[in-house]
Amino acid sequence: MDGALKSTGTSSPHTYSWTPSKGTYLIQAKALFGVTEKTSDISGIVVEAVCGNNRCSASEDGCNCPADCGETCSQIEPGLLFIESVSTSDDAIQDGNEPIKAVDFDESTYWSSTTPNSITLDLGYSQTVSETNMKFGKNYAYKVETSNDGTSWSSAVTGNANTGWVKSTFNSRNARYVRVTFTSGGSIILYEAEVWGQDNLNTAE
Questions:
Q1: How far apart are CA 99 and CA 133, in angstroms?
Q2: Which of the four pLDDT bands, split at 50, 70 and 90, describes residue 205?
């Protein structure tokens, strides 16, 4: 396989199995009949795997299949905090445009609803937060609040958003929840919502 001898045998049928990494392989089988050698090439084998079978395919990474790939999610940058779950204050959403679409790292998808409404980003545990970065589909009046318990909220940012990415920086504070409330602007289109700061639990010493 790829120029390296992996297995030999004298019985038929001969089998060989291995757990491949993602990529493309050339597999070559040779059969000896006395002094006659017959070679069979199977080229362009592309490892395609279903998440959960201990194989990492070319379409998988640590983000969508950590069980297989066992690597750090390439989309998580230092300072970008992982959002464990999302919820909204109003269940009025369009089919296919659920709140989770605002945190899926895909700028072509979005959460859609109507104002007034809010989306709450749950970081899983208290972390140091200091910035939000959101991609809006239109202009909105909005406010950002933070909380450790999901009940008592502290104001972080109040402003008017323009279409596209809007970064808002505020005084660092510990929080588990970040809530973005849209107070006016009609229909809501939120492509992505990011929270930046420092992961207090997993910060390397």
A1: 16
A2: very low
Which pTM was predicted?
0.62
pLDDT reported for residue 161: 76
Map tokens 């362009």 to a residue: 44
Establish how many alpha carbons lie within 13 A of residue 203's alpha carbon, considering only the half-sphere containing its beta carbon: 12
Mean pLDDT of 24-39: 59
Residue 38 within a domain: yes
Q: Is residue 204 part of a domain?
A: no
DSSP 3-state of 57? coil
DSSP string, the chain: -TTS-----SSSS------PPSSEEEEEEEEEETTEEEEEEEEEEE----TTSS---TT--TTT-HHHH-S--TT--TTBPPP-EEEES-----TT--GGGGGSS-TT--EEEESSEEEEEEEEEEEEEEEEEEEESS-EEEEEEEESSSSS-EEEEEEEEPSEEEEEEEEEEEEEEEEEEEEESSEEEEEEEEEEEE-TTT---
User: pLDDT tens digits, residue range 125-180?
Assistant: 999 999 999 999 988 889 999 999 999 999 999 988 778 999 999 999 999 999 99
Q: Give residue 56's domain range.
A: 1-75
Selected residue with higher pLDDT from 129 and 24: 129
User: Is residue 54 within 8 Å of residue 18, measured between CB atoms?
Assistant: no
Same domain, 94 and 182: yes
